[in-house]
């Protein structure tokens, strides 16, 4: 089992589709580790794990705690820690907080939500030996200021802006780009215009790989289902079925049996 590196990820462009999934703890990181290329400790944990309405309350301490848990569980996949809202508001904060990730966890890279105003931060981090994934398009940390989760790339101006941010991310040294909530045709143009892998979420099938939030993909989070999510497992339904069985076995006195008890 060879540890996946940023070099390996870059080499997959045009060769193999890449698979990224989120994880927030050692248990699931360990299950996913063998099969995926990258594990993202996403700030989506604030919603799917912590039950909040958006990701904005994620903190550096929280991300570091969960990144350590994921690093304890995963030995092979490349691990990416998401930089939470407010942690990269200027170059100095971005470097200080990214250095925390490298010094306090074994994460291989950080992910930064980028727009044309903060794209310079990537070069500063890369120049200081931090590996960076640039997250562009629909950036959930902008959802409150933009008034919702807005799909990007519908207008010519947005298309041009996205292509320019993607190119700048590549030129600044990002080793990978996550494109979220972008019209498929524009995601394809972005993918074809850069020489680093582009991982899509809600960005169609032409990207170099896909990322999903694990609790969406496996049916544990069912409050809403974005159009781009495919449920590969009915997690909640199956857990509830097993839970019913557990409850009924306890209530009927059938659990624990003699074999499940210490008799001597
Ligand atoms: O926080 C997260 O899980 C993410 C993915 C949706 C890309 O940013």
Automatic annotation (TrEMBL):
Q: How is the cofactor bound?
A: Binds 1 Mg(2+) ion per subunit.
Show the catalytic activity: (6R)-5,10-methylene-5,6,7,8-tetrahydrofolate + 3-methyl-2-oxobutanoate + H2O = 2-dehydropantoate + (6S)-5,6,7,8-tetrahydrofolate
Report keywords, A-Z.
Cytoplasm, Magnesium, Metal-binding, Methyltransferase, Pantothenate biosynthesis, Transferase
Family to which this protein belongs: Belongs to the PanB family.
Identification of the protein by name: 3-methyl-2-oxobutanoate hydroxymethyltransferase
For this protein, the record's InterPro entries field holds: Pantoate_hydroxy_MeTrfase, Pyrv/PenolPyrv_kinase-like_dom, Pyrv_kinase-like_dom_sf
Cofactor(s) for this protein?
Answer: Mg(2+)
Cellular compartments annotated: Cytoplasm
Q: Which HAMAP family match?
A: PanB (MF_00156)
């Amino acid at each position: 089992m060879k540890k996946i590196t940023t070099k390996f990820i870059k080499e997959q462009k045009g060769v193999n589709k890449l698979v990224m999934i989120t994880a927030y703890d050692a248990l699931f990181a360990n299950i996913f580790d063998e099969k995926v290329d990258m594990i993202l400790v996403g700030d989506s944990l604030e919603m799917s794990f912590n039950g909040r309405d958006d990701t904005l309350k994620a903190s550096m301490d929280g991300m570091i705690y969960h990144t350590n848990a994921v690093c304890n569980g995963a030995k092979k996949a490349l691990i990416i820690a998401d930089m939470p809202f407010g942690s990269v508001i200027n170059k100095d904060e971005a470097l200080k907080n990214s250095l925390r990730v490298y010094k306090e966890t074994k994460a291989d890279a950080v992910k930064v939500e980028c727009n044309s105003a903060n794209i310079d931060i990537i070069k500063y981090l890369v120049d200081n030996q931090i590996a960076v994934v640039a997250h562009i398009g629909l950036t959930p940390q902008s959802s409150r200021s933009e008034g919702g989760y807005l799909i990007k790339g519908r207008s010519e101006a947005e298309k041009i802006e996205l292509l320019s941010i993607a190119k700048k991310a590549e030129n600044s040294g990002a080793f990978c780009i996550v494109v979220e909530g972008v019209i498929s045709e524009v995601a394809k143009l972005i993918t074809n215009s850069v020489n680093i892998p582009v991982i899509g979420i809600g960005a169609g099938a032409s990207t170099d790989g896909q990322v999903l939030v694990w609790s969406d993909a496996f049916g544990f989070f069912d409050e809403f289902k974005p159009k781009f999510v495919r449920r590969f497992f009915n997690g909640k339904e199956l857990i509830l079925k097993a839970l019913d069985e557990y409850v009924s076995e306890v209530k009927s006195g059938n659990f624990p049996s003699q074999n499940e008890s210490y008799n001597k």
